[in-house]
Specification:
InterPro entries: AMP-bd_C_sf (IPR045851), AMP-binding_CS (IPR020845), AMP-dep_synth/lig_dom (IPR000873), ANL_N_sf (IPR042099)
GO molecular function, one term: phosphopantetheine binding
Organism: Micromonospora sediminimaris
Distance between the termini: 55 Å
Number of helices: 14
Largest sheet: 6 strands, antiparallel
Shape: globular
GO biological process, one term: secondary metabolite biosynthetic process
Radius of gyration: 23 Å
Protein name: Amino acid adenylation protein
Number of strands: 25
């Protein structure tokens, strides 16, 4: 199924790359770079400190610095669990996450402003420092131990800790390293912060093959083709909304990104027009749309862009593809299996459950004796085992008794002349749910009039607002919650037809 390699702990994928390409560059951050041998040495020095002091759960509080990369490896080397923490997050949230995860030690960039607050908030927290000599022998870790913990948003407003095991990552890497045929000559982008699970793809897909990881901070989007050419990037991975950013900066000219072999997108719905524009800019690249929640270890399906993609697209959105062959899925609607409904998945990439067992409530189907993770995503079965992504179950709202898919509203608005991109949100006004649309394109467009001639009245947004650019959250995704709050502020609780 996924090869005959002996099972590996997560850091053993890095040491496999080390054995393959010890003198190749493992990591490049700006003008600084580390070979596999050098990065291994730095990580072993941090690991020496962790093992000497009995660290079990280690917070990584650093941005794009050597502490974040070597700290992650060091934690795994020490047989501990890594908890990535972002310096960009509010201090109170960072402290909550560390407390929920039971962080006992932190590896930090000491210039991070949140560090003293974290130390003050967690009595007994120890700040690690690299040992003078590297750890010679790595302690044992169990295959089913948590390699790292990431946090997802909880419905109560409290972050939910999701542990991902060595076994989960081993299953993912075995399949995907074969799928993408990455080797020591490849250079892989690293666009995601480590608090976002897709960062683990960036790092360990490259390191497992002896390839180079190049840190890709947001400012490079201003001239992305130049960056890709200078770094010789062959594998690109980002959220789909990055395409619009590159387009605005003039980076999608045909043939502008010739070094790319793979262009992968995940984390949001990928629009067909965006995928085709990117493919024209990177003609030697295979474009794929990946899908998967954190709880299923990075991604669990992928659609490869082809001539059939246009026929399979629903509301202009690229399919999420068939599931990986080592996973199983069900589509459940009103408690029974069907061809459209909530996607539920099981298999070796399924995480063991949230840190707080109370968060597991309602997240699993167990009727047939298996644990099926309820993704909260609505899908439709297509031909050839392909799945169409129809949006979040919680992006299906009730308006005056009608079920409304917000993705459908966005699609209709984007068909209007002058509209480049649209986001629909639901918000509360005067005690009832209303629709708002924020769009990028020509200012002052009449959106409601044309929409009223195309769709039923309940699909016509009450508020239509032009924006120069759509806002994004810390993970690079469109900030839909922020837009909903903005709609409430703009209307002041009143029903507004156009703004």
């Amino acid at each position: 199924m996924t090869g005959q390699l002996p099972r590996r702990l997560l850091h053993e994928w890095f040491t496999a790359g080390l054995a393959t390409a010890p003198d190749r560059v493992a990591l490049r951050i700006g003008s600084q770079e580390w070979t596999y041998t050098q990065l291994d040495d730095v990580a072993r020095r941090w690991a020496g400190d962790l093992t000497a002091n009995g660290a079990r759960t280690v917070g990584i509080l650093a941005a794009r610095s050597i502490e974040s990369y070597a700290g992650l490896l060091a934690t795994l080397y020490a047989g501990a669990t890594a908890v990535p923490l972002s310096p960009a997050f509010p201090v109170a949230r960072t402290c909550r996450m560390a407390a929920i995860a039971g962080v006992d030690t932190v590896i930090a960039d000491r210039s991070v402003a949140a560090l003293p607050h974290l130390v003050a908030a967690l009595p007994g927290l120890r700040v690690a420092a690299p040992a003078t000599t590297p750890l010679p022998t790595l302690p044992e870790a169990a295959y089913d131990d948590a390699a790292y913990v990431l946090f997802t948003s909880g419905s109560t407003g409290q972050p939910k800790g999701a542990p991902i095991t060595h076994a989960n990552m081993d299953s993912f890497l075995r399949y995907n390293l074969k799928r993408y045929d990455i080797g020591p000559d490849d250079v892989c982008s690293q666009t995601f912060d480590q608090t976002f699970d897709l960062a683990m793809f960036d790092l360990f897909m490259a390191w497992g093959a002896g390839a180079t990881v190049v840190s890709t901070p947001p400012q490079v989007f201003a001239a992305l083709p130049d960056f890709l050419a200078a770094e010789r990037v062959s594998l690109w991975f980002s959220v789909p909304s990055a395409i619009a950013v590159v387009r605005r900066r003039g980076g999608l000219a045909p043939g502008a990104m010739p070094t790319l072999r793979w262009s992968l997108f995940c984390g949001e719905a990928l629009r067909l027009t965006d995928a085709l524009d990117w493919q024209r800019a990177a003609p030697g690249s295979t474009v794929e749309n990946l899908y998967g929640p954190t709880e299923l270890t990075i991604a669990c399906s992928a659609h490869r862009l082809s001539a059939d993609s246009a026929d399979l697209a629903v509301h202009g959105v690229v399919p999420i593809g068939p599931l990986y062959p080592h996973l199983r899925y069900r589509i459940i609607e009103d408690g029974v299996d069907g061809v459209e409904g909530e996607l539920c998945v099981t298999g070796p990439q399924l995480f063991p459950g949230y840190l707080d067992p109370a968060d597991d409530q309602g997240r699993f189907h167990t009727g047939d004796g298996r644990r099926w993770y309820r993704t909260g995503d609505r899908v439709r079965q297509l031909a050839g085992a392909e799945l169409a992504y129809l949006g979040r179950m919680d992006r299906q709202v009730k308006l005056r008794g009608y079920r409304v898919e917000l993705d459908e509203v966005e699609w209709h608005v984007e068909q209007l002349p002058g509209v480049q991109r649209a986001v629909a949100v639901a918000y509360e006004a005067a005690g009832r749910t209303e629709l708002a649309v924020f769009y990028v394109g020509a200012p002052g467009l009449d959106v409601r009039g044309p929409m009223a001639s195309l769709v039923p009245g309940y699909l016509v947004p009450r508020l239509c607002q032009h924006v120069e650019a759509l806002p994004h959250n810390a993970n690079g995704k469109i900030d839909r919650a922020g837009l909903a709050a903005r709609a409430r502020d703009l209307t002041g609780g009143e029903r507004v037809a156009h703004a």
